[in-house]
Amino acid sequence: MAEQFPGGVLDLLDAAGDRTVFEHGDRTVSGAQLLEAVRRVTNGLRKHGVGPGDGVALLLGVGPEAFAAVVAAHAVGARVVGVRPGLTGRQREHLLADVAFKVTDRAAGPAGDRPGGDLVLDDLLSAPDDGVRPRVTARPEDVARLIHTSGSTGVPKACAQTYAAMTAAWALRPDAWPPAVRELASRLDRFLVFGTLASQVMMEYGLLALAAGGTLVTADPPAFPDALVRHRATASVITVARLTRLVASQRASPVDLGTLRALMVSGSPVTPGRLREAAEVLGPVVFHGYGQTETGMISMATPEDEPGSLGVPPVELEVRDDSGRPVPPGTDGELFVRTPAQSSGYWQEPGLTAEVFTDGWVRTRDLGHLDAEGRLWLTGRARDVIIVNANVHYAGPVERLLAAHPSVAEAYVVAVPDDSTGEAVHAFVVPAAGHVPSLGELRTLVAAELGEASAPTRLTLIDEVPLTPAGKPDKRRLAAGA
């Protein structure tokens, strides 16, 4: 039986030895050096009493020491919570409410003034190195990490992934790589990482790159195409909006992207037209991934796949009708999936868990179909969401906030294309008698409660909302006129 995660990561670093696995600024870090950092942080965490089941929040970036801290926290069996930038104060407080320990890049004050659970990464790295491979004390049934959604419902929902699920994930198991992942892995020689390892996508592609013998290269700032050129990157993650800007930049003022072999688009769909344009300008480098926080990767299209297709899913996938029955190829329905590393549910949310996680399947709330060759095509959403910078934001909480404003009688929001963020929030508002709602006021209201990404970027005043034949608000007609 395979050792629990992160045993496979420790094995990779040990096997890498003197080979460079991380480039960070002017520094190169070998597998042996990164493994030493993992040993030190592991020993430091254990010295502070961190063990299986303890909640540990990591407020860190993407450098090698941050990577070592992630691995070490898993080695001691902690429940790891990554805290990404850009959260509101309320959202951040919610993420930190259920953790006993916080690991930060720098001290907030003198050591004597800090609570016992506030740990500084440099202090953990100063722990003795005993030269012994860290003992993995993770238990299969324990929650390994909480991966948070965007928080557009007010506070982020946390998807709970167990150690058994992380161990079953295919990133560290080349023998289990599906064909599309195997093709991608062959292009990850120099994988550009940026932002934070709290990003599920960034961490998992990073592990895949290491398993493929590649090097992680940090970019700060992650400006494209400059970062790709400066770091001679062969691959990176990219949002739809950033891909659109990169293509436009290359058309207007091309630079040499000769090292680039893979851009992994995830988080929101790419239209066939955008994919064709990207292939024309950048070459055959775009991989289009489809997955969810709850499931991890569901399917991936390579540059050879027909634009619009998401390739043949390497996981169990059923397309079901409204009664829950599977439908034949070519027929649209809601997608239900089972993946090796899917979450076990939402942390401390039994009602929501029962709604989405059913009999071992995950209800994606996305609509699509499989064609006769088994390729997946998305055609819509069964949930009312807007995907901004690859993060899902629910329409309902935004509408309720807007409708509570004194100048608003009714409010409806829809997704509209946006070159900067992929999609944006467009608000349609029926004004309250004697009032003229202001976009600035409404944006401020939503941003303060739900975050900037949920705030409407456009406002249209309407006399009344159009209705469907069933008497419900017809958002398709609203979106068509946006």
TrEMBL record:
Keyword Ligase: yes
All residue ranges annotated as the AMP-dependent synthetase/ligase domain in the record: 17-347
Superkingdom classification of source: Bacteria
Coiled coil: none
PROSITE patterns: AMP_BINDING
The name this protein goes by in its record: Fatty acid--CoA ligase family protein
Molecular functions per Gene Ontology: ligase activity
Species name: Streptomyces roseiscleroticus
Domain AMP-binding enzyme C-terminal: 398-472
UniProt keyword terms in alphabetical order: Ligase
Keyword Ligase in annotation: yes
InterPro entries associated with the record: AMP-bd_C, AMP-bd_C_sf, AMP-binding_CS, AMP-dep_synth/lig_dom, ANL_N_sf, ATP-dep_AMP-bd_enzyme
